[in-house]
Amino acid sequence: MTAAVARLARWEILLGLVLLALLGVGQAMSAVFLTPRNVANLTAALIEVAIMALPLALIVIAGEIDLSVESMVGLACALLGFLWAAGVPLEAGIPIVLVVGALGGLLNGVLVTGFGLPSLVVTIGTLALFRGLALVVLGPQGVSGFPDAFTTFGFGTVPGTPIPWPALVFLPLAVILGVVLHATWIGRQIYAVGKNASAARFSGVRVLRLKLALFVLSGTIAALAGVILTARFASARADVGQGMTLTVVTVVLLGGVNIFGGRGTIPGVVLAALTLAVLGNVLRLGNVSAEIQSIAIGALLVVSVVIPNLAHQVQALYRRVRGGRHLPAGAVGTG
Amino acid sequence: MAEPAVLERPTGWAGRVITLAARQRELTLAGLIVVLAALVALQAPQLLSSSNLAQVTAQASIIGIAAVGQTLVILTRNVDLSVESTIGLVAFVVAEVLAQRMLEPAAAIAFGVGLGLVLGVANGVLVALLNVPSIVATLGTLSIYRGIDFLLAGGKQVTLTDLPPGYTDAARATVVGIPLFFLVAVAIIAAFAVILRQTTFGRQLYAVGSNPEAAAILGIRSRLIVFVAFALCGMLAGVAGVLWGIEFGTINATAATGVVLQVVAACVVGGVNIFGGSGTVVGAGLGALFLGFISNALILLRLSQFWLQAIYGIVILVAVSIDALVTRRLARSTTVRRSFVGAAAAGRARR
Amino acid sequence: GSGGGSSPAASAPASEAPAGSAPASEVPAAGGPNVVFIPKAVNNPYFDAAAEGARKAADELGGQFTQIGSNNAVAAEQIPFIQDATTQGYDAIVVSATGADEVAPALKAAMDAGIKVVGYDSSPASGAYHVFVNQTDFSLIGGAMAQWACDLAPDCTGEIAILSATATATNQNAWIADMEDALKDPKFANLTLVETVYGDDDPQKSTTQAQGLLQKYPNLKVIVAPTTVGILAAAQVVKQAGVSDAVKVTGLGLPNDMKEFVKDGTTPKFGLWSVPDLGYLAYHVAAKLVAGEITGAEGETFTVPGLNDDQPYTIGPDSVVILGPPFEFTPENIDQFNF
Amino acid sequence: MTDVLAGPALAGSAAAPRLALRGVSKRFGATQALDDVSLELRAGEVHALVGENGAGKSTLVKILAGVYQPDSGTVHLDGRSVEITSPGLARNLGIAVVHQEPRLFPDLTVAENVFLGHTPTGRLGSVDWGAMRRATVDRLRELDVRLDPGAQVRGLSMADQQLIEIVKALTLDARVLILDEPTASLSVHEVDRLFAIVRRLRDRGVAVLFVSHRLDEVFDLCDRATVFRDGRLVATEATAELTTADLIRHMVGRAVELFPRGEHPVGDVVLEVEDLSRAGVFDGITFSVRAGEIVGLAGLVGAGRTEVARVLFGIDRPDRGVIRIGGAPVEFGSPAAAMRGGIAYVPEDRHQDGLVLDFPIAANVSLPILSRLFRGWFLRPATERALADEYARELQVRMRGVDQLVAALSGGNQQKVVLAKWLATKPRVLILDEPTRGIDIGAKVEVHRIVSELAASGLAIILISSDLPEVLAMSDRILVLHEGRLTAEIARAEATEERVMYAATGQDRGGALPLAGSAHG
Ligand SMILES: Nc1ncnc2c1ncn2[C@@H]1O[C@H](COP(=O)(O)OP(=O)(O)OP(=O)(O)O)[C@@H](O)[C@H]1O
Ligand SMILES: Nc1ncnc2c1ncn2[C@@H]1O[C@H](COP(=O)(O)OP(=O)(O)OP(=O)(O)O)[C@@H](O)[C@H]1O
Ligand SMILES: [Mg+2]
Ligand SMILES: [Mg+2]
To answer: pLDDT tens across A194-222, in order?
Structure first.
């Protein structure tokens, strides 16, 4: 266990070092880098992605995937706009949107757990479906004119600090999900399901129910991210969120979550989100062209898997040379 | 062929129908396409006009060819999400090479297919050699290839006027009345259908996806097979990219964005099992045609385009659900318990 | 969708400011201002043409010009660029809004930070800029398009259809609304607008939509595409289908894109404003705001040498300045333009 | 012996055995699966390989099949030293193997499974489906098996799959044929046909290695027998000079009294099952288990014992019937519900269903009782460790500590962790499914001791085992399942291997239920 924890910690430490290096580069490159305003900007730029990455991390650790989140963001946004335009106050509209998010997650969950369908295909299907519904609900037009308090929440910072308001959603959520995953028995069950769903089931873990709950959580939080985006954009459109899934998945995988389940931590995901946010900011401040950014993110994703793989192979080789005992590839603690 | 001693197990009437429907996935889908076309044609007779058919088949052919490649990869329990970037990059590079008059059309086409192959090989290296899970690797190359595309294209776009005269006429060319693209797609599908069914490579592809451990015990070189599948997928995406350029004439760095959804949907609707090991390229091709007809029908019926995405999603979900149900029924209906009448020990006296 | 279409269009301009060009902070400020242009998307010929004009203005004024932005015309990606430009302390930000409301808070924050904000091509929400440089009077475009359709339809009679950018594009929607108004004029009574379809400023989708129009409306006479991507796609489709004689295409396009179609009769006439001039004017407006020569108040006037026949521009309601009337491109004049 | 050769072609050099192993060893982590084994296999003989579960038989087979590489030692084929580095190479060397667990391709047809790896090709190297189908039909006919060569393997029964594996090996025209427990799920008729073919191959000079637990088969078919115990070869003798008792003595290493089981009182009925049925799997199962009682559940592989256990544990739903615990009827919709009802189930596949190999011992032990152990939601590592430590010590798990990953433990110790995990739930009924399969003899005795003690402490235990001596020695009562029906209930005093076997094969007249749905009569 201690060895496993040490190995696990290594990834987060590596990420931390990369982050520090990036901070160094940013500081050296631009005098404005560590100003409160810039800190606020770089946080705000990726906050919805970071929020969505949290439940996705749990889903991936449990051995599934949800690619539909970006469309749920769009659907939430469109629905909120639609309701607002129809005269529904936000106090009622936002809960309705969140419920719809939960229902969307439920649909994913039921198809995956109840019908036993692969989540990859199901959520590719709902990726199209939710986006389509968003377009159907709101049509071509954009809706704006949301109350100031709402848009300030989306765009402003907590007075006197460089902390964007949405970060106040992200931080508690990260802490709660982190605690749930790492310090409660629910989290233990999530890991067990990801490492060996069958053994978990035979041990009385309600595997299907757990996965269902995670999908509902993911849908709800994606809807929440949609609400936040609506506030930040001060307007609602059906095409909001397009292409976000790639970034969300990148954050999760870069955070050290194993795509096959059973491994990963919330601190890792938070660090990965920060790293990507800082990287984007540094590249923008350096006026590095957009295409290089897209290549850099893709490369980062691939490299984040290749390096541990190679390291593992080297390690295995070393062990074989030393004649030590072989641990299975995924040997990692439960956090 | 008479085989009196070897009979199919009795599975009951319902079981037989389901078995047949599942086995004849391609026929079922083809039937559905015909029914759909007939129903739509009642409302919008233009559906069956030769120019409309040419247009639908041309675009379905492009998706279908990419879906053939995707099928190869999915059969091995992998997925290639980068096809759309490969299509886009190849489409642009070929168009640019032609616009600059650097190569003759034939050479440029070969170059484009070769470029697709190279991009597929890169995916293959990541997955088969470096053990990167395919979904991660190709999600990465999805943005890397697109980034390269932007890097090369910048703000440029190649238009019809830049291309050699007559080059894009191929999009509407016909051979004995049949659109050229359609023939190309049919030829490719037929070739790969034969490869998958009649070559040891093809059978090993199924084996690797169906049961990797058993494949290993048989001594099948799974990594090589997976590698080749990715390489071929890239190559076919290259072909699709070339056709894309011919079909649309105007190519910029964003060409084919979002197309992977259609390609994977074509496979899924065509009955290719996302868990590997089963499915046919004919199915994938028909899946592409089916989806092509649906979006065409929506346009011709003057239904809101906004429904298109939603209907896409529903078609995918319905297709996989039906698949799962049929597979389950199939498994149940054929798991007739054997009669274990006695075992070796029975009746034999022990010493 | 933008004034000229937000997707990349044809020719590579002679010189463009790549997004990766030297950061503004590196070069010491000379006489002129330090201005950053943030188009909806970089790598787009329309905005590159505008950048060309802007760079020319910067050179003349001794100021600096930088263009940054995302590959995708998406608000979520444009906003961080605006914010980062704000922290970097440019003198002025010139922006084509991906969404009027979406970018407004970021632009207001920039204004609060003392930065001059100029809109061009696509307007941010009013109040989120000091001056918006409009390419042309919207009502002129609507009327012009109606007139072109009338000119191209035999006897000004028959079915016409519109191929637009995205369904949410502010500019296109405004022009289309104006055009629909214009069509109510009795002189257009025989023209029937059968449908408006959206190609999302994507060459492929626009192609498919144009093909769909030909299938759906066998008697179609004119396709009006108020977007550079759409008009090109429509012209290609019509030409490939071999119906250039029966169906004409018009709308707004880049002259370089359309030369061939103008000459072969598919698109005998269409229009656009001078895109380089748009960038040129926007840079000048930014410089004047920075220098304090104007504030953006309604009624202020200023002149820009070489534009508007050297007559003064007047800032109109909502702090809008109008570049001028659109050009009409015809087989006779098309060769004079290169953008 | 080599001159028994009747067929012409296959004679090797007269002196050298067809296949010889010299000093072969193989280690898996803590388990020494093979320890300095030297064995000769002659052309034209059927050579039996017997030994307890986990003795190393399959490991040897897999080395010859090119699946594993030996850590040390050499393999000689017809006198020449060979390194069988891959399954393909083994096949090229003429070694055909029927593995213990069928490893087929569910998506492919029967014929293709038979021929994959040596697919017949026609001109241009294209797969010759017709030839494949015809050859498969011929081979199936030889075995008198009714199976459609064009059918998909998915959904076929274990026995059919086993037959396909056999047919597959028979198509190879091998010089060496290795059969690893091929008869475990076959019918008498199929076994007879198989043996006839094996004899014919033997007479043609093929060397056959035959692994089996059924000693009568060994005497029936084999010329010589080799006995393994704990990875070591303990004897090789001609079967003519052996008796069953000799073999067992060799296998077990001592004469008797392997399973100490003291007398103890039996309490009230804890679990009652009445007319429990699940379509196509088992039918009309009725029995009861008392506190402190061990009820053995015997039957051939595939008789439906595991299926009964799965229903009792809430994994599958019954179609009919009643389950009562302490007199009250219960219905379990999930394992969680069954656990609340006081049932614990040690599954037969330890790695797949029993353990999260990648978890530490402590996390495995606490997994079923997480919500009970940590009522305030939060994990308390100290509590968890203390609990795991208590049970691990009680069961004498050999470990570095409860933080050790389960993957790093030996099979026997892993099984003890499974037991620990279920004992921690404080069950009233414990179902053990093949609890000693694949663990070494020492661990096996310990497991038996533990089970006896648990019964003595008042637990009601159902013991499912294919190890007949184990069932006989451990059980107070034995229920025998045949084709999903109970065919006998035998008290401890009356239980003999013969009676159980007769009932397991559906031939017990006394108290046997009528057999239904039997195609082979
Ligand atoms: N891949 C493996 N990894 C770790 N241990 C293994 C592996 N394969 C076998 N073993 C162990 O090696 C020992 C010998 O196993 P083997 O399968 O050869 O026994 P066997 O004689 O065939 O038993 P059975 O009669 O149950 O088939 C067992 O303790 C088993 O747990
Ligand atoms: N996953 C499966 N797929 C198909 N058939 C199965 C599957 N699992 C079990 N069976 C079949 O169900 C029947 C009953 O199996 P079960 O495991 O209950 O038998 P058992 O008496 O417990 O035998 P064993 O000694 O192998 O445990 C067998 O015919 C088996 O082949
Ligand atoms: Mg074995
Ligand atoms: Mg069993």
So the answer is: 999 999 999 999 999 999 999 999 999 99
